[in-house]
């Protein structure tokens, strides 16, 4: 298994291009299952999760062709010949459950393995299933698989999500585009990835209103056509790289960055004393002098502070002036980076969903273990500002969500290299 070695090397200067969003691309790709005409996605990120979704779609009979080094994905589902999403693929990535709604809506049947829990929490899919049931789906859970049927096709319905779920909103939204009649999704997720999905579905001929608000209304249509759609910028990759100069000092412009994608996060950076400026090309972040101030963070659904940036923000707080309280409200077990940061000298106290971080002057490099995607990158960020060498082991998690991380950080002056495992 590969490791990443990072050595503290002073302030960072330069530009980092931000890729298309993993979490948008992972929901846009299954949208191909709604149509027998081609769907072309541009600005796709080159990540192992995208390969996993490619393998899953191909296992169903869809065609997925990578062009321009993987930045363009040409998808087609005109030859769908298998409606069973196998456990061996689904278990690798939770977003695999997103094939359920589209397959069921188009062909009236689908069998999809339950994805199971993961390091950050139990992550059930009950809301995906309940939303589909509200559209008339008949579901049966057997031997770890969801067996779904809608013999006469899905029918429009009303579903109010008891808690906000990004994935369940995506599954229901896709399914509703081909249901007969009107579907209303209440307390829907408002994440930019949902808005991007709605834009793509509309290009394919879907009738959708209200994306980006808590109520999405979908008027079902008989069929969807093809489309070409650019994947929205990755707000989590953006936030991660904005934190690099915040932690190390210096000035970095994140190309393609947009404040509307990371508003609550920018507010927290500014509260901590970091400057964020909108430029023609993106967002420029600088920390020219002075200490970072400790700030409190509560993770919430969009437009709140994203859970996917909590670990990276904790890395910043480790050397801030004062004490910060980070409250994780989305996932029940998302502080696995804390003990690893403590190996680097951080002072962190975790109680349930709350972590209290007391800032120290400087972290010290250490061998650490990456436990999940965002934990991995938080350790890299911490290592960039630490004294000496930090070896981040088990970085396969990192490759799920960050393309060419060594190159992107190396180009702005970071001392970072990948060591290939045996
Ligand atoms: C591929 C993708 O887009 N992943 C993102 C997506 O995950 P994902 O779509 O899995 O996250 P959800 O928004 O669904 O999860 C929010 C909360 O709802 C719970 N829940 C969810 C579904 C369900 O059927 N029942 C249920 O109880 C979850 O366990 C969690 O506690 O949104 C999360 C929250 O912003 C992000 O951290 C993930 O990076
Ligand atoms: C939790 C994440 O992804 P996933 O939902 O695919 O596990 C993430 O992107 O931080």
TrEMBL record:
Modified residues (2-(S-cysteinyl)pyruvic acid O-phosphothioketal): 118
Catalysed reaction equations from the record: phosphoenolpyruvate + UDP-N-acetyl-alpha-D-glucosamine = UDP-N-acetyl-3-O-(1-carboxyvinyl)-alpha-D-glucosamine + phosphate
Catalytic site: 118
Molecular-function annotations in GO: UDP-N-acetylglucosamine 1-carboxyvinyltransferase activity
Pfam families: EPSP_synthase
Pathway entry: Cell wall biogenesis; peptidoglycan biosynthesis
A single BP term in Gene Ontology: cell wall organization
InterPro entries listed in its UniProt record: Enolpyruvate_Tfrase_dom, Enolpyruvate_Tfrase_sf, MurA_subfamily, RNA3'P_cycl/enolpyr_Trfase_a/b, UDP_GlcNAc_COvinyl_MurA
Function description: Cell wall formation. Adds enolpyruvyl to UDP-N-acetylglucosamine.
Protein's UniProt name: UDP-N-acetylglucosamine 1-carboxyvinyltransferase
